[in-house]
Amino acid sequence: MADDKCRQCSNSKCCTYTTESIGAAPRSKADFEHLLWQVSHAGVEIYKDEDGWFLLIAGGCEHLLPGGGCGIYDQRPQICRDYDDEWCEFDAPAEDGFEFYFRNYAELLAYCKKRFKTWGG
Length: 121
Fold this sequence. Notes:
Order of helices and strands: HEHEEHEH
Radius of gyration: 17 Å
Structural class: alpha+beta
Helix content: 25-40%
Distance between the termini: 53 Å
Number of helices: 4
């Protein structure tokens, strides 16, 4: 049953952030300049995994209860109902599957300087 892990999980990590696909993989300096702007904001990180590039935006769900349960479980949005916990952060941290992970401007800038030999100061 999909809810078994959710009922055992006490930290509800999956309910403390959202992710958004960046879309097409960043390739140009302009693409990475835009990502540098995004990751400069509090609570915004960037990662790449087997499914592509994503923004990871920190922010707990307003319905998350202190014990980790959902305060609107019976009325939760469809995306929450569709969530499949066959593999989730109860099994292992999501970061284990990241090919690249940039938690801040400095980390992404260092990557940009390696990727683009002509990257300016």
